[in-house]
Write a structure and sequence with these properties.
This protein is an alpha+beta fold. It folds into three domains: 129 residues, no CATH class; 225 residues, no CATH class; 74 residues, no CATH class. Helices cover 38% and strands 16% of the residues. α13 packs antiparallel against α14. The longest helix has 33 residues.
Length: 602
Amino acid sequence: MRNIRFISFFLLPLLLFSLFPKRIDAVPTKPPEGDYLLGGLAGLVRFQSGRSPLSYGNRAFGQLMDVDYGNGILRMHFLSPDWGMGGYHMVFQLAPSFPSKKDTDWDLVAVTTPGREFQGEAAARQNMVKLIRPLPSFLHRVRDDRVLDYYRDLDLSSGDPKARIDWKKAEALHEPYPEDPFLRILYLDALMRQGKWDLLERKWSGWRSGLEKPDNPLLRFLSSTIDRGIRSKKSSEKHQNAHDYFMRYTRMKQGESFESIARKAVDCPESLPPPLPPTRQGDPIPNYLNLQICAKVLRVEATFAMITGDNKRALDLLRLTYELGHKVGGEGTLISNLIGVAVRGITLAGMELYLTNACRNPPEAEQFFHTLQNLRRKYASVKWDDYLQHQYPVYSLLPPEASRFQEKEVELRWYVLEARRNALLGAAAAWHAYLFSGIFPQENIQFGPLLPDGPPEDPFSDKSLQYLTRDDAFHVYSLGPDKTDNWAAFSYDPTNGTISSGDVIVEIPRNPRYPFPLSGKTGTTKEGILRQFPNGLPRDLFHDDYTGSLTVIDSIPPKIISFGPDTDSMRTRHGELLPLDPPYDPTNGIVSNGDLILELGP
């Protein structure tokens, strides 16, 4: 009996356990061997037992310097010589996708903190950050030796997207592995490189549904690159790609103006950079800074229109420039987003100048309100991270505390712009009510009829914007990034720090600071103009001094000038300008000698 009990309690469970298959998620005892696609299609690494790995392809992450393996974790050390003295060091930490398999893919699980430069591998290792979840198949196993020869032929350093590449070799790599999504995209990449657009579109049409919705964000990113390339090509052929017009600013033709190009760009359905195949990650960044110059020129022209009483043109130029900022931001990269935010910031400052100085009757205030409200509604569904949709997927997997500084800056600047735009809407409704009644609102209902429920929401609080009357002026304000109510005592200034004290304020004085003549008639002499503007003329965006104003030229008739993109305001001596530059002509170069000149009639 005792023997039977022993068998029942001890041997029988062991016997039953042996009859069922066992799941063993064992840690691999060896590092990877063979050929692996790196970071999507950015490069190829061949791991060799007892020898240093071979690395080919794009240097998007820098040069592979070292690889070590231990406890099932693979670490890859890269050095980018383009960053700082001695190079910029980055370490990637990877874990096997399927530990029980011999030839498994490897997932990215941790990276050196992005956005910081570390001198030396040790420092890079000490500043690792774990991803929210692994990025699957950051190393993707390819069981075909020909892939090494293919990547060896990719002479990416030449800068030629078609350099030494035979698309049929990519096709031959794909054919034995038709279900491998990475080799599918490698084949599409080769077709894009060689300009085989008809074949590329046919293949993409059949494969896109399976490539665009995988659980792997890396594959989604690569698929998006293919799709954007095809769309960019088609849009450009139809002259409907706003990016093409942005690039026109660097090589403007005779007779073209910033305004004419901006109108064509804004009318385009989308803006996409030229087609760049996925194997060319780290492509050159277009010179978007020209768009900021364009925005400033258009704002100066809007100010000139206010001075001459052409409010309709002034408001239309400001609307156009605001939409231009949204258009460039829609390209989906960090730099395009930053430039888009900057362009809209330049515009909103111009709109504040218009509201507080040019709107002198209820119809003008109402027209301004509806123009800005329509812009708000048009882009209401767009969020700040929508304009980062084509960022490399590693960044979307970083924990909040490790997100790149630049992305935090974009997010903050975006919400500061929203706060200023909403404050302008509230201020427009308040000014409209004042022009009717002679009294600024003291409660929400008095913002009617334009905003009968009061001012819009504050992006930096869970309430609506605040408002108060002080020093013969009405203030509509947001709490700002520090989320502290400073009672509109001082304005938020980002140069004091990303998150610093100050409210985002729009102030409406009862009497305008710049009393633009209602009839558009200015003085016939320099002294007459200065008497019309006792507080000076509005700010010159191209003055060397940030607070410098537009300049009046003592001529017959007088002229009002901005120093233009070459910002050579140092030509002034004791308040006199010698000599006067010719009119600014962007066809001579985006930054070239010349002033923006308002010719005043007799």
